[in-house]
Amino acid sequence: MDVQRGQWSSRMGFIFAAAGSAIGLGNIWRFPYVVGENGGAAFVLLYVVFVVVIGLPYMFAELALGRSVQRNPVGSIEAIVPGSWWKWVGFLGVLTGVGILSFYGVVAGWTVGYIFKMAMGNFTDFTSFIANPWPVLGLFALFIFITASIVYGGVEGGIERWSKILMPVLLVLLLGLIIYANTLDGASRGLTFYLKPDFSKINGSIALQALGQAFFSLSLGMGLMITYGSYLSKEENIITSGIYIGLFDTAIAIMAGLIIFPALFAMGESPTAGPALVFVVLPKLFANMPGGVLIGVLFFILLSIAALTSTISLLEVPVAYLVDEFKFPRKKIVWPAALFTFIIGIPSALSQGAVDFFTNLGWLPRALSAPDVLSHMSFLWGTFSLAFGALMLSIFVGWVWGTDKASNEIVQGSPFFIKTKFIWAFMIRYFIPVVIFILLLNIFGLF
Ligand code: PHE
User: Fold this and answer.
1) What local confidence, expressed as pLDDT, does residue 443 receive?
2) Does ligand 1 lie within 6 Å of residue 224's CB atom?
């Protein structure tokens, strides 16, 4: 083992860090609004099915690859097929990390801003808040700065410690809010929308959104799990760790919906508000609640921290790449990488009303419901690029590295895997690539 590379200090350390990466704005901000935009319960069901039949088996592949060669996404591929074009797939993953962080950091900045808004008892005006350029840019910069300071400290020191303490607190707060939201008048219509599927609503583009959201939420498709897997010791059980991560992550997303949808219907808001959904609905809920200021503050603090454990992981991928492949000292490369991401993110930050050009990309084909830069970035990196990356990486693991080698890696630490490895091999070689490919074709309007 290369001593320059970190390693998780314990099994729980890894699970918490990987769950910390998975759980974030994707669960509490993005999941509810994509559910709202895509018709509710049928989407939720499809999402859960994709998590189980595609997300999890695919996650094992990323973890196995990372642990086997102990490199970043590009280095891992290079270690298996030196000098081939496959390394560009790894490079796309590194770029995707930067691309996601560039818009994710903006939303994380809003979250921090909302801590102060809640503290001041100011529960409204989301639209004017995000259109105000200087605070939004400042909060975005602050968030990237905090992220970089933690990544600077390295794997065990920074990433593990944070995730361990705060995740359980978030869970308890969400439970309390579920109970409260469901006692409101009219809440049950929200539950119906959220939990009673109407299958006529499913079509190809909704299925792609559900798949993309599954990858996004589980932090898959860009080599994050390759990178985190590379810090994993051989004794760890990849299968049960992966299942825990998937379970936590899905549970938090489902819980977020159990708060948002009942609250939203009770308050007569529309489920199709897009990225604004959570920031509009939840403060309204807090405003009418006894102790709402306190709960609002606590909620946005926890959400900021959940976002932070994800932004840390997003920055860790490009940083691990630069450290491994160019031998840059970690401490020297973190700041330029963070600054670069910040600059790339400026258009997203200014795309919610601050600058007209970024707010309305009217000249682009109208594939999305919203025409702003941030929504486009979210689709490009957070849906398309992850799905494409997962397609390529499952082909890579299934056909180039080979499922035999991958299975041998997984079996170390999970002996029982030997019995199911044929099913898994089939999923990685055929099922997963074919499903992703078909859904991606849909972008070009083929169905
Ligand atoms: N999974 C994170 C979330 O749901 C976002 C993320 C995506 C993080 C990809 C890392 C890699 O908030």
Assistant:
1) 75
2) yes
Check pLDDT > 80 for residue 1: no
Q: What is the pLDDT of residues 263-306, one digit of tens each?
A: 999 998 899 888 889 999 999 999 988 888 999 999 999 899 88
Closest of 275, 387, 379, 311 to residue 98, by C-alpha: 311
Count other C-beta atoms under 10 Å from residue 25's C-beta.
Answer: 23
Q: Give me the residue label for tokens 């708060």.
A: 259
Q: Whose CA is nearest to atom 9 of ligand 1?
A: 219
Q: Judge if pTM exceeds 0.90.
A: yes
Residue 27 Cα: closest atom of ligand 1: 4
Give the CA-trace dihedral at 48, 386, 82, 230, to 10 degrees.
Answer: -60
Q: Which DSSP string corresponds to 303-330?
A: HHHHHHHHHHHHHHHHHHHHHHHH---H
Taking the CA of residue 97 as reference, the ligand 1 atom at the shortest distance is 11
pLDDT-derived band at 2 (thresholds 50, 70, 90) equals very low
Amino acid at 428: I
Residue 384 DSSP one-character state: I
Closest residue by CA, ligand 1 atom 6: 219
Q: Is the CB of 219 under 6 A from ligand 1?
A: yes
